[in-house]
Automatic annotation (TrEMBL):
Protein name in the entry: Cytochrome P450
Family matches, as Pfam families: p450 (PF00067)
Cofactor: heme
InterPro entries associated with the record: Cyt_P450, Cyt_P450_CS, Cyt_P450_E_grp-I, Cyt_P450_sf, Cytochrome_P450_Monooxygen
Annotated keywords: Heme, Iron, Membrane, Metal-binding, Monooxygenase, Oxidoreductase, Transmembrane, Transmembrane helix
Organism listed in the record: Ceratopteris richardii (Triangle waterfern)
């Protein structure tokens, strides 16, 4: 097993098609820049994701989550009040809620405009992706006024104008003392850190900030939805773990509510085990910048120096490493959240067995955000619904950028307060 022990800087953009999508959608963002520029950018963005600040966002996340659950309850009443059971495609539900959460936590009071931007961005990615091969092989194709290119230009203009207006309004409000801060959302925190000593005084332009907001949506949207969908599938097929998680949630409720401070250890273990078995990102791609890059490490039993020349592309297959018996034991293919009872480092042998959020300096900046969101979604869901898999469920994990269920993730949900006597029971 090859383990990369250090990676100072990585180059992300390797495949021509991916390069076109990334550059056209995000411009020069943390995902597409490299070297010292990347390092400065990361220092400016890091504080926005500090865990104490994120906890304050829990309330905004819960607003979106409760809306989704209220909607489910309404649908059960309208369509299936007799049985109390309803089938929903969880991948669709979680894709929507994670988009709502990102719009709210990124843009706070500008939530509606933010949501419209993200919808445009999805349209843009789709349009660019459809033509990616042509862009890659026909020089200057992207400048031709084809119908799809015109659509891309229109969406790009609209995204740019909306985000520029939001950002400039916030900056003007502070400059003119109409507001005492840039806001308590991710955008506000980036504006506050911009130009400070964190990034060596580097000042991000409005365009840079626009590119970063768009990147967060791309990086945090499908990944979190995919984690949530697999987690509900695993809890539905392992009802004892669903019950344990629900018991913990009910025990940890404060005044009847779960919040970002609730300690939910069982749920955390379930999420880590889900990420191990079904990591939304299954491989990491990097390129060596200098020789003497790493060592080989056979599950910590043997270590040999490995000289890799500069410029070599390395694909780290985290999905495969997560299923390596030498690292995880003979029960590697089983759902055993207990293995994470004493944290990630004790769950496997070897330094880099768990790679769901990447590793090294480029590891996921949004991992605490994603884990908080996932915990709040599942805890809220467990409080209000029981769920099981329908007999028609077909297990088919497939890579569509992220690891998603090919035939959707149908789940039969029943409100907890629906009693066996076909009545809604009030709390
Ligand atoms: C379950 C959810 C998530 C998973 C599994 C995940 C996974 C990853 C992985 C594996 C990487 C490293 C990629 C590489 O090294 O090539 C990464 C990077 C990144 N992620 Fe996440 N991510 C998740 C959620 C989020 C969220 C919610 C955000 C933002 C709101 C986010 C923003 C980013 C950014 C900006 C990077 C690039 C970091 C850099 O290059 O410095 N991610 N993510």
């Amino acid at each position: 097993m090859l383990v990369i022990l250090s990676s100072n800087y990585k180059e992300y953009v390797k495949f021509p098609t991916l390069q076109i999508v990334f550059q056209r959608v995000f411009g020069r963002s943390i995902l597409t820049i490299d070297g010292e520029e990347w390092a400065q950018r990361r220092r400016i963005l890091n504080p926005a994701f500090a865990s104490d600040k994120l906890k304050a966002m829990g309330a905004q996340m819960l607003v979106c989550i409760q809306e989704m659950l209220d909607d489910w309850e309404r649908k059960v009443l309208e369509t299936n009040a007799a049985t109390g059971e309803l089938e929903l495609d969880m991948i669709k539900e979680f894709t929507k809620v994670s988009a709502d959460v990102l719009s709210r936590t990124c843009f706070g009071s500008n939530f509606k405009e933010g949501k419209a931007v993200f919808e445009d961005q999805e349209g843009l990615i789709e349009a660019i992706y459809q033509d990616a091969v042509r862009y890659a092989i026909i020089p200057l194709y992207r400048f031709l006024p084809t119908a799809r290119n015109r659509l891309c230009w229109k969406l790009q203009r609209r995204i740019h104008e909306t985000l520029k207006t939001i950002i400039e309004n916030r900056m003007h409000a502070v400059q003119k003392c109409q507001a005492d801060s840039y806001g308590d959302d991710l955008l506000g925190r980036i504006l506050a850190a911009n130009g400070s000593s964190l990034g060596d005084g580097v000042v991000l332009t409005t365009q840079d900030i626009i590119d970063e907001c768009r990147t967060f949506f791309f990086a945090g949207h499908e990944t979190t939805a995919s984690l949530l969908a697999w987690a509900t599938m695993l809890m539905a097929s392992n009802p004892e773990w669903q019950d344990r998680a629900r018991e913990e949630v009910l025990e940890m409720r404060n005044d009847g509510y779960i919040n970002a401070h609730s300690k939910l250890k069982i749920l955390e273990m379930i999420l880590l085990e889900t990420l191990r078995l079904y990591p939304p990102i299954t491989q990491l791609i990097s390129r060596t910048r200098s020789p003497e890059y790493g060592t080989t490490d056979e599950a910590s039993t043997e270590e040999r120096k490995l000289n890799i020349p500069a410029g070599v592309r390395i694909n780290v297959l985290c999905g495969v490493m997560h299923r390596d018996k030498k690292m995880w034991g003979d029960d590697v293919d089983e759902f055993q959240p207990e293995r994470f009872a004493n944290g990630i480092s004790r769950a496997c042998k070897g330094m880099h067995g768990f790679m769901a959020f990447g590793y090294g300096p480029h590891s996921c900046i949004g991992q605490t955000f994603a884990m908080l969101e996932a915990k709040l979604v599942l805890a809220s869901m467990l409080q209000r619904f029981r769920f099981r898999l329908p007999e028609t469920y077909q297990h088919a994990p497939r890579l569509y950028g992220t690891l998603r269920p090919q035939h959707g993730m149908p789940l039969l949900i029943t409100p907890i307060h629906f009693s066996e006597t076909d009545k809604w029971v009030t709390m």
